[in-house]
Specification:
The complex is a heterodimer of chains A (457) and B (431). Chain A is mainly alpha-helical and 457 residues long. Helix content of chain A is 70%, strand content 0%. Chain A has 17 helices and no strands. In chain A, α4 (110-130) packs antiparallel against α15. Chain A is globular. With 431 residues, chain B is α+β, with helices and mostly antiparallel strands. In chain B, 18% of the residues lie in helices and 21% in strands. The longest helix of chain B has 13 residues, at 337-349. Classes of the chains: A mainly alpha (457), B alpha+beta (431). At the A-B interface, α5, α6 and α11 of A face β10, α7, α8 and β14 of B.
C-alpha cells in the first residue's frame, strides 16, 4: 500500500529489512537495558525525590511557600504549566497533522513524540492543580458535576474552566491515539515473548490483536479518525491556554494576537523538546538508521518556521502597544524590555528569535551537536517567554502603589524539578518497556522489495 | 532629593546609618524621604522598647539617649554636633508600598488647581473618551458628542438590575489626610489577619483598605525612568484604595467556580466557602485589592503576631459577624456587608426601609475628616447621592459632580467607588 518514490531519499537507512525493524526495536524491550539507562533513571528519580520534598511542604503549609505575593499571583506555577502544555504540542502535530498530510518521515518519531506529549500534559496539569489554594476541593469543583450544594455550577465565562476542558480533552485524545498506535507493536512483543509474565502482560496490552486484515483495516480507520479529532486540538489547546491571558484586563495580557502566537510557540518548543529527547534516545539505543539526519533537518525546518512566527509576534506586540496609544499598555511593553526584568525579556528574545535563525545554515541544521544545543536554548527561551508574559505584566500593572517584584523560593524551583523528575522517569520507563519506534508503520516505508538486501542478513 | 550619602532604597532594601549625637551612637536603617529638608535626618521616638509585650518589644531602636537637656528642658530638635555616616550593613525595611510616584497616570490620580476648577470645572479633569464608529453614531444618535463616547456608553455586558439598594462610596481626595484610621478600623472590623514583618517583606500584607501614597515626579520628568523618581519637593496625594465593587467586575468573570459574584445591591461578593484559590481574580483585578491567604494565619504558631486569632484571649475580640478565613482562599473588602445586613434587618423589624446614615462601613465610620461617604445612590435624599449629584437615568444612575471620577474609567469596569479629585489652591504651573 505504501509506495515510496525511487527518487526520494529513503527514510530508513542501512538497508533494514522488515525483520531487522522488529529485532532492532523489540530488543530494547526484551534485553536488559544498558548502564546509561540505569544512570539516567537514577538521576530522574533523584529529581523526583527532591521535588517530592518541596511538593510535600507546598501542600502541607500552603502556596505561601512559593515567592508569590499580593501583586504577582501567578509566576512559576502558570509559567511551567504553559511551558509543559506547549512541549506536548509537537507530539500531536507529528501524529495528527503530519499523518493527514501523509508526511511519512513522521513514522519513526511519532511514538516517542506522542509519549512525550502524554507525559508533558501530565506535568502541565500538575501545576494548575497544585497552584490552587484548596486543591482538595478544587480538583473536583472545577468539573461541571451535578452536586448537592444547591444550584452551584461552574462559571462557564472563566477561561480557567475552558482550560479544564481543553486539557482533559487533549490528554484523553492523545492517550487514546498513542495507545491505539501501540497495539500492533505490543502484539509483536507478545508474540516474541520468551517468559510467561511478559507474554501475559503484553498479551493483555495488545487487546487480542491478531494481525488479520480486518484488524489492520480498523486500525487504519481509527488512526485516521483520531488524527482528524486531534488536528483541531493542535490549534485549540494552546489557543484556550492563551485565553487565560487574552481575556483579562491586564496590560500585556489583554492581547488578541495571543492565540496564533501561543500555538506557534507551542509547536516551536515542542519540536525543540522532541529533538532533545530523540537525539539522546537515538544515540543510546543506536537508532541512527531510523532517525536519520533527514528527520532532524525536517524538524529543524519546522523550528525555523515556528520560531520566525514567534519572532514576528513579539515585534507585532511591541508595534501594537505603541500604536494603541494606551499609556498603561505602552508602559507594560517598555517595562518588559527596559524594566527590572529586562534580563528575562532579552533572554527570551535571544533564545527564541535569534537562535532558531541559525538553522538557515544547512551545516547547522544537519549538525547533531548544534541541534542538541539549540534545542535546549529554545526551550529555555520558551520558558522565559511565559515568565515574561506572566510576571512582567503582573508586577507593574495599573496602580503604581501595588508594583512589586517576584523572587522564586526553593519551593518554586523544587516543584518545577518534580515535574522534570516525573517527565524523565516516565520517559525512561517508556523507553525500556514500550517500543520507542512504531514498528508497524516503519515497516511500511522500508524498501522491502529490494531482493539484493535479503542476502545481507 | 536630599540624599547626600547616595543611599538607594529599592523594594525596602537599604543600608544602616550610624547616627552620632555627642558621644552617643545609634545604628539605624536609612529611608530616603522625598521632600525632606537637605541635611536633616528624621528619627521617631518610642521604639526600642523592652517591656511592651508582643507587639512592641525589641522593635526598632531607642532614640531617647540622644536627647540632651538645656536648662532642664529636653532638646528634641538638634542642629549641631550631629554626625551621620553610612555603614555596610544591608537591611530591609518592611514597606507595603515600594513604588512612590504615580507615573503621571491621570487615570489613577486626578487633580486640578482651584483656578481651573472654579472657572472651567467641566474641563478640569481627565475624561477618557472612545472614538465612536459611524455605525455606533447612527445607533446611539445624540449620545455621541464630537464623534466620541464615554467608556460607560459601550459595554459587552447586559448590566445588573438593582431593584432595592445600590451601595456606593465616595472618597474625597481633598479631605483625606492619609491618617490610616480607615485601614485600622477595617482590620479590626473584618478580622483581617496581622501577618507580621516577614510576610510584609514578602509583600503579603492582608489589608482590605490601604492608603496609596503618591509623590509627584519632577515637572521636567518625561521618561519612565525619571517618572519613577519622586520630586525634590513633591506634592503628596493620599488615595484610599479598596475593592471598587465594579459593576463589570473583571474578577467575577474569571473565577472558574463562580466564587466571586455580584449582588443585587451592587456589591462584589466573595464566597469563601466556594473559593478554591486559583488567584485568577486577584491577577485580573486592575486595582490589586484582593488578598490571598497564603498560609493558615489563624491557630498557627508560625504567626505569633496574629494574636487576634492565635490565642484564646485574642479570639474573644474577633468580630463574630465576620468569617475568619481559612488557608487558600481569597478575600477582600466586602463594603462591610455584615453592617449592611444588620442595618437592613433592624429597619425591617421597624417595618420601614433603611434610612441614610443607618448603614455605613467601618472605614467611613472611622474617617476623622469624613473623606469617605458610604450610602445608597438609589436614595435621592442620601448624603452620597447629593454629594455625587446623582441623577437617575433608567437603570443606571448618572453622576454629575465634576470632581467625581472612577480610577481607570477607560477600562469600563464601572466601579461603585468614586473619587473626588483633589483641587489644589496653587498657581497653574507651580509645582
Amino acid at each position: 500500500m505504501e509506495v515510496v518514490s525511487a527518487v526520494r531519499t529513503p527514510l530508513v537507512t542501512g538497508g533494514k529489512t522488515v525483520g531487522d525493524v522488529t529485532h532492532d526495536i523489540c530488543i530494547r524491550v526484551e534485553a536488559s537495558p544498558p548502564r546509561t539507562w540505569y544512570m539516567a533513571l537514577a538521576v530522574s528519580i533523584s529529581l523526583l525525590a527532591v521535588g517530592s520534598y518541596t511538593l510535600f511542604y507546598t501542600l502541607w503549609d500552603g502556596i505561601g511557600m512559593w515567592g508569590l505575593n499580593k501583586t504577582v499571583g501567578w509566576a512559576w506555577d502558570i509559567t511551567n504549566f504553559v511551558w509543559w502544555v506547549g512541549i506536548g504540542h509537537a507530539g500531536t502535530l507529528i501524529s495528527a497533522i503530519l499523518l493527514l498530510f501523509r508526511q511519512k518521515w513522521r513514522m519513526s518519531i511519532n511514538r516517542a513524540a506522542e509519549a512525550m506529549t502524554i507525559f508533558a500534559v501530565i506535568c502541565a496539569a500538575f501545576f494548575p492543580l497544585v497552584h490552587m489554594g484548596r486543591l482538595w476541593l478544587g480538583f473536583y469543583w472545577v468539573l461541571p458535576l451535578p452536586n448537592t450544594f444547591g444550584s452551584l455550577w461552574v462559571n462557564f465565562n472563566s477561561p480557567l474552566l475552558w482550560d479544564v476542558f481543553a486539557i482533559t480533552t487533549y490528554f484523553t485524545v492523545s492517550l487514546v491515539f498513542w495507545y491505539i498506535g501501540l497495539i500492533p507493536d505490543f502484539a509483536t512483543i507478545r508474540d516474541r515473548a520468551k517468559n510467561r509474565i511478559s507474554a501475559a502482560v503484553y498479551g493483555a496490552l495488545s487487546f487480542g490483536w491478531t494481525g488479520g486484515a480486518k484488524d489492520w483495516s480498523r486500525y487504519e480507520s481509527v488512526s485516521l479518525i483520531l488524527a482528524g479529532l486531534a488536528t483541531p486540538l493542535v490549534l485549540s489547546v494552546h489557543t484556550i491556554v492563551s485565553f487565560d491571558f487574552a481575556t483579562s484586563v491586564i496590560p500585556g495580557w489583554h492581547t488578541t494576537i495571543f492565540p496564533p502566537y501561543f500555538v506557534a510557540g507551542a509547536v516551536f518548543s515542542g519540536f525543540a523538546m522532541v529533538l532533545t529527547l530523540m537525539l539522546i534516545t537515538r544515540k543510546v539505543y543506536k537508532l541512527e538508521d531510523y532517525i536519520t539526519i533527514q528527520h532532524i533537518e525536517f524538524m529543524n525546518i519546522i523550528i525555523i518556521v515556528t520560531g520566525s512566527i514567534v519572532g514576528i509576534a513579539y515585534l507585532t506586540e511591541l508595534f501594537m502597544a505603541w500604536y494603541s496609544g494606551v499609556p498603561a499598555e505602552q508602559y507594560a511593553f517598555l517595562n518588559r524590555a527596559t524594566g527590572p526584568y529586562w534580563w528575562a525579556y532579552w533572554t527570551m528574545m535571544t533564545c527564541n528569535v535569534i537562535s532558531p535563525q541559525l538553522f538557515w545554515f544547512k551545516k547547522i541544521r544537519t549538525s547533531l551537536w548544534a541541534t542538541f544545543a539549540l534545542s535546549i536554548v529554545v526551550n529555555i527561551g520558551m520558558w522565559f517567554e511565559r515568565f515574561v508574559i506572566i510576571v512582567t505584566s503582573l508586577h507593574r500593572d495599573y496602580l503604581p502603589s501595588s508594583w512589586a517584584m517576584f523572587t522564586p523560593t526553593f519551593y518554586d524551583i523544587g516543584d518545577y524539578l518534580f515535574t522534570f523528575g516525573f517527565f524523565f522517569t516516565a520517559f525512561f520507563l517508556f523507553a525500556k518497556f514500550f517500543p520507542v519506534i512504531n514498528m508497524a508503520e516503519v515497516k511500511g516505508i522500508i524498501k522491502s522489495s529490494s531482493t539484493s538486501k535479503k542476502g545481507l542478513k | 532629593m536630599a540624599n547626600d550619602l547616595g543611599i538607594k532604597v529599592s523594594e525596602g532594601n537599604t543600608v544602616k546609618l550610624n547616627l552620632q549625637v555627642g558621644d552617643q551612637i545609634i545604628t539605624l536603617p536609612a529611608i530616603i524621604q522625598p521632600g525632606q529638608a537637605r541635611g536633616t535626618v528624621g528619627l521617631a521616638l518610642g521604639y526600642g522598647r523592652t517591656k511592651a509585650g508582643r507587639v512592641g518589644t525589641g522593635i526598632g531602636v531607642n532614640a531617647f539617649p540622644l536627647i540632651t537637656e538645656t536648662a532642664g528642658v529636653p532638646v528634641l530638635a538638634r542642629f549641631d554636633n550631629i554626625q551621620v555616616s553610612k555603614t555596610d550593613l544591608a537591611t530591609r525595611v518592611a514597606h507595603t508600598q515600594t513604588h512612590h510616584t504615580f507615573m503621571n497616570r491621570d487615570f489613577v490620580v486626578q487633580e486640578t488647581t482651584l483656578d481651573t476648577y472654579v472657572n472651567h470645572p467641566e474641563h478640569a479633569f481627565h475624561r477618557p473618551a472612545l472614538a465612536a464608529s459611524t455605525e455606533l453614531e447612527k445607533t446611539l444618535g445624540d449620545e455621541v458628542i464630537d464623534g466620541k463616547l464615554k467608556p460607560r456608553q459601550i459595554s459587552l455586558w447586559k448590566g445588573h438590575n438593582y431593584p432595592n439598594h445600590h451601595w456606593n462610596m465616595a472618597i474625597d481626595l481633598n479631605s483625606c489626610t492619609g491618617c490610616s484610621a480607615c485601614s485600622v478600623a477595617c482590620q479590626a472590623e473584618n478580622n483581617v489577619p496581622v501577618v507580621g514583618k516577614e510576610e510584609v517583606l514578602n509583600r503579603r500584607e492582608m489589608t482590605w483598605i490601604r492608603i496609596d501614597r503618591y509623590y509627584s515626579s519632577e515637572k521636567t520628568a518625561k521618561s519612565n525612568r525619571d517618572l519613577e523618581v519622586a520630586a525634590e519637593n513633591p506634592e503628596v496625594t493620599f488615595q484610599p484604595m479598596m475593592c471598587q465593587h465594579c459593576n463589570n467586575a473583571p474578577c467575577e468573570t474569571v473565577c472558574p467556580v463562580a466564587a466571586t459574584t455580584h449582588s443585587t445591591e451592587g456589591l462584589n461578593q466573595m464566597v469563601y466557602n466556594r473559593c478554591i484559590g486559583t488567584r485568577y481574580c486577584a491577577n485580573n483585578c486592575p486595582y490589586k485589592v484582593r488578598r490571598f491567604n497564603w498560609f493558615k494565619y489563624h491557630d498557627n504558631v508560625k504567626f505569633p503576631d496574629n494574636s487576634g486569632m492565635n490565642n484564646d484571649l485574642g479570639k474573644m475580640v474577633l468580630n463574630p459577624d465576620v468569617t475568619v478565613r481559612s488557608r487558600g482562599v481569597m478575600e477582600k473588602c466586602t463594603f462591610c456587608i455584615q453592617r449592611i445586613q444588620y442595618g437592613k434587618l433592624e429597619a425591617k423589624k421597624k417595618g420601614r426601609p433603611v434610612m441614610d446614615g443607618e448603614v455605613t462601613t467601618a472605614c467611613a465610620n472611622a474617617c476623622p475628616t469624613e473623606a469617605i461617604v458610604f450610602g445608597d445612590i438609589r436614595d435621592p435624599e442620601s448624603k452620597i447621592a447629593k454629594l455625587l449629584q446623582v441623577k437617575d437615568k433608567g437603570e443606571m444612575q448618572e453622576i454629575h459632580e465634576h470632581r467625581a471620577y472612577n480610577v481607570l474609567e477607560e477600562i469600563n469596569v464601572r466601579p461603585n467607588v468614586w473619587y473626588l479629585a483633589k483641587v489644589r489652591n496653587k498657581e497653574e504651573n507651580a509645582s
